[in-house]
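Risk register update: the risk of archive-format incompatibility is retired. Evidence:
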Amino acid sequence: MKPLSHPIDRNPPPGRDGFTLVELLVIIVVIAFLVAILIPARAATGSKSKSILCWSNLRQIMSAMMMYTHDNDNFFPPNPDDGNATPGHNWCAGLARRGRAEEFNPDILRDPTRCLLTTYLKTNVSVYRCAADTRMGRYTGADPAKQGTLVPVVRSISMNQAVGTDPYSPSYGKLPVHGPWLDNAHGHTRNGAWRTYGKTSQVVAPIPAKLWVIIEEDSYSINDASFGLGMNVAEWIDWPSTLHSMGGVITFADGHVELHQWTDARTRVVIPYNVARKLVPDSKDRLWLSERTSARAN
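Archived output:
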């Protein structure tokens, strides 16, 4: 056999067996730097994914809303300011505020007589929940097999209080809602100073592309499925969600969906939370939403 031209030296001269302390410190610093870059990037990607999912969810909700109006002579579904669960009396029944009975009761959303869009959603009730709303709690529905199990919150959205029909006498679903909070005093009626919209044909000011219909609401604010906003005074009565990096998803009467970024720090509900009515003079966020909530009747 021909010998190797460069035989292996089985007894190499002494040398370094590892890294010096300085080199190890440099490596640790580099790794920490990379982690600092990658974790926020991953969080941002997760946040973007949740925003896209919520956009898709509300797109399905708005498609169901448009199918409902098509099948009901262009009338919007009932949208009373009371959370009632009377069959046929509410577009979405129940009180979803933290600590209330319907916060973790998906059964009410699956009932097409009490949540009138469910028929068009094929019982896919997950679309009522914001993907960034991480509330979990004990199931409060009627299914014995689910008692004691943990379930996600069922609803994170509400409807513009100026849009919808009044289910009570003398309307019985044929006249617009009163929109009681439009006057900032819970006394507004459908013949008041601000427009309310019972049919799609009544959406003329603002135009359909400028009238919002469904909004993601803050989890400490949400109760019934009707979002109250006063038009006379700059204040928050109900509070929009800011879970998507200070943004929230909103649908409009023409069917399109937006992820709107709020810009005023006063729009965010902070902990310890206080979701009582709050004056927000010169708030661009409140102004933007009010311009898309209603318009003067005369």
